[in-house]
Design a protein that fits this description.
globular, mainly alpha
Length: 275
């Protein structure tokens, strides 16, 4: 059977499909623990011959929305996150993702990536040199101020997800830990609910434009769900210390990936113009 013809990608081979499915499984696991699975899943989709970037983005979001839904339910059942904070934050983040997508049509994401790399470096150093951060929940705000800060964080990170995307779950986790005062487990649980909303917001833009590759997306969704279920179960069982270690590894990966993008999109053209 010619799998490429079946899935609407003529040059897709069984070997490439297997690699993409494995990437989707790994991405689901990473997303469930700390976020940032798009670092693995999206680049692998872009390697498929003949796939358009917008198709890769849309199909990535389609698979991810099932994974984040799975991990959200798993965390809710076992970690019991406070949905009075998570649900309003998710709703505001969905709106933010629409705004970010609108800005992305005007300003290129490459313009913002250097700022994101600097922010990630600060996050990595802050997390590495403060080992007690996120070890236990010590909320920094109460009452209406708590919900206002959570909503502002959701709006900002949702905006980022709509505009650029990679590492959204990671930014959610560190914001909930460093700004709000949650431990890493509770932060991860809430981040999944919010990340589900931002993925859904992006899909609401991609689906009407016919950008989703449905059959390929369905296959990846199954792998993403399996990875998400395993990742969320491991995070809950092993707790905050495990999540913190994985978080640092993913942040370093984000810095490397976006650093390469900044080099290729900003620095190399600058040198070329001088020559």
């Amino acid at each position: 059977m010619d799998i490429g013809a079946v899935l609407g990608l003529e040059q897709l081979t069984w070997g490439m499909l297997l690699l993409v499915v494995l990437a989707a499984f790994g991405a689901g696991w990473i997303d469930a623990v700390v976020g940032g699975g798009g670092l693995l899943q999206l680049p692998m989709l872009l390697l498929i011959p003949g796939i358009a970037p917008v198709q890769a983005l849309a199909t990535n979001k389609f698979a991810s929305v099932f994974g984040t839904a799975t991990s959200s339910v798993t965390y809710y059942r076992r970690a019991k996150p406070d949905i009075r904070t998570a649900l309003p934050m998710a709703a505001i983040a969905l709106v933010g993702s629409f705004g970010g997508a609108a800005v992305a049509t005007i300003l290129p994401p490459a313009a913002f990536k250097p700022i994101i790399v600097v922010a990630l470096l600060a996050v990595a150093l802050f997390t590495a040199f403060r080992p007690q951060m996120g070890a236990a929940t010590k909320l920094r705000f109460s009452g209406h101020k708590h919900h206002i800060m959570a909503g502002a964080a959701g709006l900002g990170i949702g905006f980022y997800d709509g505009m650029i995307g990679p590492g959204t779950g990671t930014f959610l986790v560190i914001t909930l830990v460093a700004l709000m005062g949650y431990d890493f487990l509770q932060a991860s649980a809430k981040a999944k609910i919010v990340n589900f909303a931002t993925n859904l917001g992006a899909l609401l833009l991609f689906i009407p434009h016919g950008s989703v590759l449905w059959l390929l997306g369905g296959i990846l969704a199954v792998a993403n769900v399996a990875g998400s279920y395993l990742g969320s179960r491991m995070a809950i069982a092993r707790g905050t210390t495990f999540i913190r270690v994985v978080f640092l590894v993913v942040v370093i990966g984000l810095i490397a990936k976006l650093g390469v993008d900044v080099w290729n999109e900003n620095i190399v053209p600058a040198f070329a113009s001088l020559g």
